Amino acid sequence: MLAFVLPGLGAGGSEHIVSLLCNHFAAQGWSITLIVFEEPSAPSYYAYHPEVRIVRLGMKSRRRAAATGALAMLRRQRRLRRALKAVRPELVVSFLTRTNILSVLAARSLHIPVIVSERNNPALQTVGPVWSRLRQMTYPHAVGLITMTQGAMDWFRGAMDVKGWVIPNPVPPAGAAPDRRSDGRTIGAVGRLVPQKGFDLLLDAFAHVAQRIPDWKLVIWGEGPERAALERQRDRLGLAGRVSLPGVTERPGDWIPQTDLFVLSSRFEGWGIVVGEAMGAGLPVVSFDCQWGPAEMIGHGRSGLLVPNGDGAALGDAIVALCADPARRAALGQAARERMADFGHDRVLARWQSVITSILDHHRVRAGS
Fold first, then answer.
1. Does the keyword NAD apply (predicted)?
2. How many distinct structural domains can be found in the chain?
3. Which of 2, 79, 115, 365 has minimal Cβ neighbours within 10 Å of its Cβ?
4. Which residues, listed in sequence order, are joined to residue 300 by a DSSP beta bridge?
5. 140 with 168: CB under 8 angstroms?
């Protein structure tokens, strides 16, 4: 019996990997429960195996003042503890910092081991002094930490006493993408509309080169709190007819067949999941060389292009160079697809299963001794 714990069931990268893991284990006959803090009516963006039991705790996260925030944290911890006590899993696998902390606290008195997984860049993603201190206190009590990059793991090992494993995100099989529906001149970007994703930098870069590639348009798929600011910036730059922000795609990965050149403009990343998805589908990719992730997937000049992090002029020049060279786009796309074979579903999920089964075996031996 495994229990996965996650804030919600939205369209993010953490939600994606959790759905893959739940479905993988359920298909093998494991008893799987997914616990989320969202309301019972919250829909799931990703599909789940019919044998995956989903428990919604009805406590969606929201910003609060310090005092009320502390009380809310205690309520969330107690409700999670009650859920874990009812489910009685052999192991909890938790995702994302605040949820990880609550999972360790809730499971500890029940003597349930917990794996915590971080999915972002801990050196640059701020969680605030209280949560940072709680992370330092709780993570050493987890049976292990899983990150997507060695850089993230090195940061954690320098900050606290943790045992860990580095497991990258899997890339969807090339055949999983729908038939292409592009006009042949679409630059695509994907992500939550937040400062981390650097879409403001991308708009500036595109504005500087738009006249050099008059037949190309930019589409930014995603939703988030920066939508209004990005739309104002787009209009101020005179790009209303060249840039669209259509929101989240109806189906996962539906942006792929509508894209001819993919761009990652993030200031920092935990991995860069959409880069892997684009490369696995054979799209040419231009990315900021941000910490961490893109450089672990992209071989510069071979399977994509990396430009100095935050250098909008270099990003614009790289976009123009590929827009003007269809043969190079095709070559980079083919090499990208071949590179992503190292991050195939079966290989990555097997690494997760190896870690989980080794921890379960260890704790079963201890429980029997």
1. no
2. 2
3. 365
4. 304
5. no
pLDDT tier at 305, thresholds 50, 70, 90: very high
What is the per-residue pLDDT for 61?
61
- If asked whether residues 181 and 161 sit together in one domain, one would say no
Instruction: Give me the mean pLDDT over the 319-335 stretch.
Output: 98
* Cα gap 217→188, rounded to integer Å: 9
Q: If you average pLDDT over residues 339-368, what whole number do you get?
A: 90
Count of C-beta atoms within a 10 Å radius of residue 190: 24
Looking at the structure, tell me whether residues 255 and 183 fall in a common domain.
Answer: yes
pLDDT of residue 263 exceeding 50, the answer is yes
Across the strands, what pairs with 166? Answer: 147
Name the residue range of residue 350's domain.
2-170+345-368
pTM over 0.85: yes
Q: Are residues 110 and 178 in the same domain?
A: no
For residue 62, give both structure tokens.
Answer: 């929201």
What are the C-alpha distances in Å from 183 to residues 77, 180, 317, 325? 49, 9, 22, 16
Q: pLDDT digits over 193-235, tens only? A: 999 999 999 999 999 999 999 999 999 999 999 999 999 999 9
185 residue type, one letter = R
Classify residue 304 by its DSSP letter. Answer: B
The alpha carbon of residue 87 and the mean position of all alpha carbons in its chain are separated, in whole angstroms, by 27
Determine the longest span between alpha carbons in the chain, in angstroms: 72
Q: What are phi and psi of 153, to 5 degrees?
A: -65, -40
